Each structure stands twice: as structure tokens, then as C-alpha cells.
């Protein structure tokens, strides 16, 4: 792997910085029903530079960390870290992340841009996928298996919004759609 200091981050350039928001909406499964939580969060995206894989593929890479707190009791309910990558040659977005519960996701997709400079990144992965996949610890595979993940993230100016769906088999639910959506503002 080589590192280049002069990087074109493509659509990822718009993510760089710290984003905060208190408009998050989480819908998740519980043993006795469905729980809905309002949340606040901070996401920090930092440039890593360009990396080269196998002396062929060049990726512009951002590292990020997302911390989420439930609003009603200020309890931290999520901590996620990972990378967003841009493969300019293949016009491809790659999103990799780990969650401290024993799960790792390698999602891939694309981006679109509107005439008024709104950028949307869309990625997906599925358990057992041949290219974009989800891996998890044995306990999760047995008791709370994640089978799919989709995310759409939109940036326009200093506003970032996202919608994501994680498909899980947990409790008495098969293919439960655990959803999260939020709108954040770039911290200046």
C-alpha cells in the first residue's frame, strides 16, 4: 500500500468535518415489541489521503467516527467507526465500518449529483454477499443475525441527512427492518 498526499476525494470532499444533530429517529426491535427513540449524534470525517491497493486501485479515504446518544436519558446507544472510500476510476463508493458488538460491514455503491449540487451516496451489503458483505461474531449469527444493510446519505451545503435500514433476525422477528434516519449540520 502506498500513500499519496495530493488527493481528489470526489464526492467525499463534502463530508470532511464534524457534523452534529439532534433530529435522529431510531426504530429497533425489542423482545416485547418495537422501540422508537429520538437521538442526537456527532459524526467526524477526517481525510486519510489516497491509498493504492495492489499497485492498481487508487482510493481516496476518509476515516469517521459516529457517537449516538438517546435524547430521553442521554444514554450512549451507538459507537461506530469506519471508512468512506472513493474509487474515481470505477465511479464507486465503498463504506466499511465496525460496531463494538461484533459486526463488520463492507458496503458498496455509487453517488448521484443534482444540478443544485446535492450529492447522494448510496451503499448496500448483505450477509454472505460475494462482493459487499456483512460478517458477525458467532453469538450474533445465532441470536441477532444481520442479513442486510442499505444506506442513503445526502449532503447539500452544510446539511447532511441519511436513511439506513439494517435487516435483522432477532427475537421473534425475521427480516426486521431496523431503521435510523437523521439530519445533521456541519459544525463550523
From TrEMBL:
InterPro entries named in the record: Calycin (IPR012674), THAP4-like_heme-bd (IPR014878)
Short name of one Pfam family: THAP4_heme-bd
Domain THAP4-like heme-binding: residue ranges: 9-186
SUPFAM superfamilies: Lipocalins
Signal peptide: none
Designated name of the protein: THAP4-like heme-binding domain-containing protein
Record organism: Reinekea marinisedimentorum
Lineage, highest ranks first: Bacteria, Pseudomonadati, Pseudomonadota, Gammaproteobacteria, Oceanospirillales
